[in-house]
Amino acid sequence: MTGIFSALSGQFTKYLIAGTFLPVLVFVVTAMLILSPLLPEWSTLSAILSTLDKQWVTILLTFVTVLLTGVLYNLNIPIIRFYEGYPWRYSWTGEFLVTRRKKEFERLSAARTDLRLARVNLQQIDNSNPLIETLQSEQDRIARTVLTNFPKEEYLILPTRLGNVTRSFEDYSRQQYGLDAIFLWPRVVAVANKDYLATVDDAKSSFDFFLNSSVLSSLLAISLLAAGLASRKPFAADKDLVIWVCELILLCAIARLTHQGAINRAVAWGAQVKGVFDLYRWDLLKQLGYAQKPTSRLRERELWQEISQQIFYGDPGSGKPWPYTEERQIVSGSPADVALQVASGTSDMLFRKAVKLHYRIRNVDPQQRTVNNLSLAPDVPSTWSFKWNSATARLGANTRVPTLTSTKPARFSLGWLEFGQELEFECVFNLISMR
Q: I need a labelling partner for 347 at 20 to 30 A (CA). Which of 58, 256, 279, 413 fits?
């Protein structure tokens, strides 16, 4: 445990120095160089600095740097949220920028669809046309842009580019796996590999460096403008005015470039965060006590959605919490907790060399929900072999053709079943394997 704390402490120190301390140090030194000449001689700060020797000035600057580093570090989340646009999302400016972002999102989405249709049509006319590869390449580029720079749902779009980039990877785990990142992030980092988490911290540190540099450059530009206008010293000579204006332009340019750098680093940070969920969500599932092994992405999403809701809301208002172990289910569907009544039986055929299985499935859900993706996996010995094309399903007067989705074990897809409906299923298994 001590070794882990030491490693985390070293990583935290590296993160703090690279992401916050260095920008603050540069800010303090630069502020002393360009603001001190503009301070009135009668000002308190100017009087204090003029009475101190170099040693005490160094101590004072060190104290200010450490103090400002601590303040900036603890304000990291509010600063990020401000740059993302959350506090002013519903202001006039926020609404205007959100509308612009939505139009850009719609334009890119429409261009992606048009390129896909053009490529498909061209393939039908001339599959060897080299323009097909160009259309595919442009379609892929736009798809990557949309995936990286925007959340999937339009209503989640924020006023700023940085906000949309961060929202795209914050919502990634929910879209891919049904896993709520807000609630489960503190838990998944507890089981993730520490070396991998170090790469996440490095990406976050790089992002913080650029964002803090943008914040401090903007603050310094505002301070320089206010000090110059208040003291009127830059207007005393043309040379001083040119230098003052150049300093303002340079600081504004630095603030703009570092803000762009923060957006680029947010993309890299997001890629690392996505990787945590891609690689370690199964370890988290095990640590939470679940022995489930979903066989499809749909079933996995249902499982993580249930776990996320259980953590945030507690036990569901209706139904039972998700079991820790995956029970052998002959009949299953979506939602997983829908109530189904199942009756089964058999009849021998062909001198007992084959058997016909009968199932009657009725939807008796108390909430009167429709069950979708209804699946049936007959509980038969592994040596039995399914007789091809022998499966039939009847829903009242209508007949359905079940889809065989796997053979070992045999599993059939039966479609949907509304509340109160009853489905009858039959199939034949040979008792002797036909190998």
A: 413
Are 173 and 279 in the same domain? yes
pLDDT of residue 8: 38
Q: Are residues 273 and 344 in the same domain?
A: no
What mean pLDDT comes out for the span 157-182?
91
Say yes or no: 295 and 365 in one domain.
Answer: no
User: What one-character DSSP code corresponds to residue 154?
Assistant: G
Token pair recorded at residue 306: 């249930």
| 377 HSE (CA, 13 A, CB side) | 16
Residue of 424, 267, 426 lying closest to 347 (CA atoms)? 426
100 falls within a domain:
no
Q: Residue 351: which CATH number?
A: 2.60.40.1170
Contact 132, 122 (CB under 8 A): yes
Average model confidence (pLDDT) across the chain: 85
Asked whether residue 217 is assigned to any structural domain, the reply reads yes
pTM of the predicted model over 0.85: no
> What are the DSSP calls for 312-341, one per residue?
HH-S-SSS-PPPSS----SEEEESTT--EE
Note whether 175 and 264 are same-domain residues.
Answer: yes
Distance CA 175, CA 47 (A): 59
Strand partners for 362:
341, 422
Q: What's the domain count of the chain?
A: 3
DSSP-based three-state secondary structure for 407: strand
Q: Count how many residues are written for the chain.
A: 435
Amino acid found at 27: F
* pLDDT over 60 at 350, yes or no: no
Q: Hey, what amino acid is at 294?
A: P
Which residues in 13-45 are b (16+ Cβ under 10 Å) and which e?
eebbebbbbbbbbbbbebbeebbeebbeeeeee
Tokens at residue 199, please?
A: 């790469």
According to DSSP, residue 159 is labeled S
Q: Answer yes or no: is 237 within a domain.
A: yes
pLDDT band of 42, cuts 50, 70, 90: very low
| Tokens linked to 36 | 């001190």
pLDDT score for 33: 84
Band the pLDDT of 433: cuts 50, 70, 90. Answer: low
Q: Which domain holds residue 378?
A: 331-430
C-alpha 178/C-alpha 372 separation (Å) is: 18
Rounded to an integer, the average pLDDT of 96-111 is 94
Shared-domain flag, residues 283 and 162: yes
Query: In Å, how far are 90, 144, 160, 281, 330 from 105, measured between CA atoms?
Result: 19, 12, 13, 30, 44
Q: What is the pLDDT of residues 113-141, one digit of tens each?
A: 999 999 888 888 888 888 888 999 999 99
